[in-house]
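The pair is quoted verbatim below.
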Amino acid sequence: MHCKFMSFAIRLCYLVIAFLGFCSAAVAGNTQSYDIVIAGAGTGGVSAAIPAARLGTNVALLEESDWIGGQMAAAAVSTMDEGNDLTPPSGIYREFLARMDSYYRARNKSVGTCYWQTGTHCFEPSVIRQILNEMIAEVNAGGTGNKNGHITLFLEDRVVRVLNSGNTVTGVVTAKGRTLQSKVLIDATEYGDVLPLTTARYRSGHSIGLDRQGSCIQDITYTMVIKKYQNGVPPELQMQHAPPEYEKYLPTLRKQWQADGNEKTRKLPVSFKMHNAYRGLPDSNNAESYVGTQNGQITRTVLNWFNDFPTHTDIFDRTVRKTILCEAKLKTLANLYYLQHELGEALWSVADDEGYNTEFNRKENSCPNIPVEFKAIENNFPSLPYIRESNRIVGEYTLTAGDIRRERQRGLAVTGLNDSIAVGDYPDDQHGCHSPADI
């Protein structure tokens, strides 16, 4: 349930193939030229685009969904996993935090609503999306520090072909037929989807390249923002019948959370209130404010504890990816039915005000294995699942856990990486792949 976002810089990208000979933006028919093409408008893509544009470059930023913000917004993993340094001294992430804090302070809301604590950064996905769009718009309007660069955002489009001259990238072709010329390409997609389109070597699971061997990768989670409807759940969001495969998940769910479960610690089974404080979010539609230690007052949270879904490298194959994601959705629906019926939380259901119910989500993410009676709920699922592992480029040097481990007891910072841009501070947190054959 962790490990989404050590910092904007760490999440930056999986691929940069470049000779830094920039070209000015120009348009000729359906061919356009940019200094940088970034595939994926998640945390990495946006945090690459904004500084680049502020330095005077022209950036094409592509996002295949209709949401920017990636894991922390489009996937609704909007409680920041920040390790020890909750607020860095500088950088775009600090700027982002300041804007988010300002938004909630103006509404007399605390952002310390998650992880059973008060000193955390927890945000509504819709607000993250809003702030990131504002940051991009400010760059394009020539805001402070901008040196006449520009970000062109292409939503609902993706790279399907990488153009090259030898080992040098010269541009990309997109699913909508655009040709975007550039000698700098950043793969900031959630799955590392651009890597296989290039000549670069990359890791996929335990293998190199397309020879994936069906190996295990870390679990995904199809999260869901849920909220308490004080005046009753709308009929279409109340589950009258158990979803498919519910009986398969029920025995484990009963071991994980119960109506009279543990309210003091995380020892399973926990109570519903204990669950809510894990990924608790501020609630802009609740006049009251609360913090992560006030379990019983939380009215908005994320289902992202008992719905990890095991997967493997087949998820990197776009022809079968949707089938895997639709199965993951069923597990989350089982969690929702369980809380409404077995836990007796009849006032809780999927939040219908985060902005996920879009034409794109209803069309592109609609799953054939989810019955019609649950479609109103499915429409409010996040646009993306929580993804913990992607294809990874084989660089000149591969970091290991030992390279970035902080010696907490002695207070020593990471050493040996003196020329790094940034160093993460998040502990190792593996999901799945625990059998001897997979370690």
Remarks:
- Residues 79 and 368 are 30 Å apart (CA to CA).
- The mean pLDDT is 88.
- The two ends are 19 Å apart (CA to CA).
